[in-house]
Every structure is written in C-alpha cells, then in structure tokens.
C-alpha cells in the first residue's frame, strides 16, 4: 500500500515535469517562427478609407438586453434572443416580427438560424439548446413543436448549426462544447479541455475542413477536430475571458475578442 | 474520498495533458512572415468581393431608403 502510494507520487511528478518541459519546448518552437509581426509585413499596404455606416433598420420589440442574433441564409430574416426570455424572428426588410417564442428561462444567450431557414435553435439559463421548426401557420403554437436537443449541466453560451439542419454545435458554462444530432437528440461528440466556462464558438468555413474554434473564461482559445473530439491547438495569450472568436474567411486564421480589451 | 482515487485521477489528467502537449509539439508550423503574406494575399484577392471595401451600389441595396411616391 505504502509503496503503491510512493509509486503514484513519482509518476505524477515525472508527468508534471514532462508537461512543463513540453510547454517550454512549444514556446521555443513558436518563438523561433515568430520572425516578424503581421503589422510590419503590412506596413506598405494602403490604409483603408473612412468606413461610412448608416443605420437602415431598427428592430424594436425586445424587452431587455438583446444577447444574440443570427441572419438567415435568405439574407432577409434575423433571429434574435434576449435577456427577457423571448426569441423573435424578424423580417429585416419590413421590420415585422414573423415569429416570437417565450422561453421557459431568462437570459437566452444563444440563438441560431438553421441553414434551410426552416428552424431556429436557442438556449441559455435553461442549460439546453432547443430547436423550433418555423411554420407559416398562424394558428400553430411554436412552443408546442419545441425539441430539446442539447443538455448541458450549466448555461448554454453559444450554438451553431453545422452545414445542415441535422447537427448543432453547442458551447456551455459547464466548460464543454458538444455536437448533437437534432433528430434524435443524441450526443455525437463532446469536447473537453477548457478549464472554465466556454463563452463562444465559431465553425471553420465549410470548404476548409471540420474544425471549430472556442473561447472561454480560462483565457484559452482552442481549435477542435469535430470528428475526433481532439483539441488540435490551444492558444493562451489573452489575459482574461475570451468573449468572441471568429474564423478568417480563408480558414487559416481566427480572431478573438477578450475582456482584457484586446 | 480515498486519496488513492484522487491521485489516480490526477495521474490520468496529467497523462492526458502530456499526450496533448506531445501532439501539439509535433504539429507542423510555418513562420509568421509566411502566414502574414498568405493572409495579405488572400485579402487582396478577395477585396473585390467585399462589400465593406467596395461599397454597395444603391440599386442593389435592399435596405435603401424608400422614396415616397409623388402623385402627380
């Protein structure tokens, strides 16, 4: 018994020191390749001109903070979700509300439009991601058709359909991301590795492969292989929570926004 | 509960960390100068398709201000 304990302690210590030396090696490798800064390479590029923005529509109707929104692929409809528990589908051309559903929880932090435009997904403090099919039947009660797809053990912070209406990727305050089958509600893959709440995720542009990036309260941005559940790379350079991550359109890079003001 | 189970959990976790780090250390990497050049050339190639850079012609803008009809 006593010798087993000793053996375990030795293994733990040697594993920890190997981890430390590998981390050091990684930093060395990265430093070797860091021969120049992006802005130095871009020095001779013309700066962009003044960007003029004009508000074209204001969609009024939510009772409290709007936490999330997503465009439909038809470039016309928008789904938005609010702290007040409501999820609204808008026609942005006319500003009319096409659908509205009241969630059983407040703080609906995530919402997404399905690629077909026939459904929306949303969730928040209810720890779930639910899918609502959109119908044009005025008598239809949207809430009745609700399908609970994802179950997490803490709040849902982000959700996104993959290339089809059939799969949803979710991120949660429970520190995990997960890929779900919409039809059966089955968990297809889970992604463990964040040390704290995951706040955001973004899928790689479809032509470039099956990966997605997630950012969390552990200050890490992690790139995942959707099929294996493996973390491909982790980036730990922020000094605070990462609130948002977005892939660059080429799929070769991603940007992150953090509470550390960068 | 027993210190043995918590330490086996720690070992399992440490093993996973080491495996993960080993895998990350073996990834092929390119220099920042090359990556920057790639990103910049992608930007320049696709600049023509970027409405934020090129602007949107009013005739194609579905959100343009609607003019009221004047009844003559």
Automatic annotation (TrEMBL), chain A:
* Alphabetized PROSITE patterns for the sequence: WD_REPEATS_1, WD_REPEATS_2, WD_REPEATS_REGION
| Annotated organism of origin | Balaenoptera acutorostrata (Common minke whale)
**InterPro entries assigned to the protein according to its UniProt record, in alphabetical order:** G-protein_beta_1-5 (IPR016346), WD40/YVTN_repeat-like_dom_sf (IPR015943), WD40_G-protein_beta-like (IPR001632), WD40_PAC1 (IPR020472), WD40_repeat_CS (IPR019775), WD40_repeat_dom_sf (IPR036322), WD40_rpt (IPR001680)
- Each WD repeat occupies one of these ranges, namely 59-91, 149-190, 191-234, 235-262
Cite the SMART domains for this sequence: WD40
Q: Which PANTHER family match?
A: GUANINE NUCLEOTIDE-BINDING PROTEIN BETA G PROTEIN BETA
Q: What keywords does the record list, in alphabetical order? A: Coiled coil, Repeat, Transducer, WD repeat
Q: What is the lineage of its organism?
A: Eukaryota, Metazoa, Chordata, Craniata, Vertebrata
As recorded in UniProt, coiled-coil segments are 9-39
* Family from the record: Belongs to the WD repeat G protein beta family.
Name the UniProt record assigns to this protein: Guanine nucleotide-binding protein subunit beta-5 isoform X4
Record has Coiled coil as a keyword: yes
Q: Which SUPFAM superfamilies match?
A: WD40 repeat-like
Asked if the keyword rRNA processing belongs to this entry, the reply reads no
Under Gene3D superfamilies, the record lists: YVTN repeat-like/Quinoprotein amine dehydrogenase
Q: Tell me the Pfam families matching this sequence.
A: WD40_Gbeta
UniProtKB/TrEMBL annotation, chain B:
GO terms (molecular function) for this protein are: G-protein beta-subunit binding
Functional description taken from the UniProt entry: Guanine nucleotide-binding proteins (G proteins) are involved as a modulator or transducer in various transmembrane signaling systems. The beta and gamma chains are required for the GTPase activity, for replacement of GDP by GTP, and for G protein-effector interaction.
Where would I find the G protein gamma domain in this sequence?
Answer: 7-72
Got a GO cellular component term for this one? heterotrimeric G-protein complex
Question: Where in the cell is the protein located?
Answer: Cell membrane
Give a yes or no for keyword Membrane in this entry. yes
Indicate the segments annotated as coiled coil, or none if absent: none
Q: Which UniProt keywords apply?
A: Cell membrane, Lipoprotein, Membrane, Methylation, Prenylation, Transducer
Origin: domain of life: Eukaryota
One Gene Ontology biological process: G protein-coupled receptor signaling pathway
Instruction: State the similarity comment.
Output: Belongs to the G protein gamma family.
Q: Which InterPro entries match?
A: G-protein_gamma, G-protein_gamma-like_dom, GGL_sf
Q: Could you tell me what this protein is called? A: Guanine nucleotide-binding protein subunit gamma
Q: How does it assemble?
A: G proteins are composed of 3 units; alpha, beta and gamma.
Look up and give the membrane topology term: Lipid-anchor
Q: Write one Pfam family the protein is assigned to.
A: G-gamma
This protein's major location comes to membrane
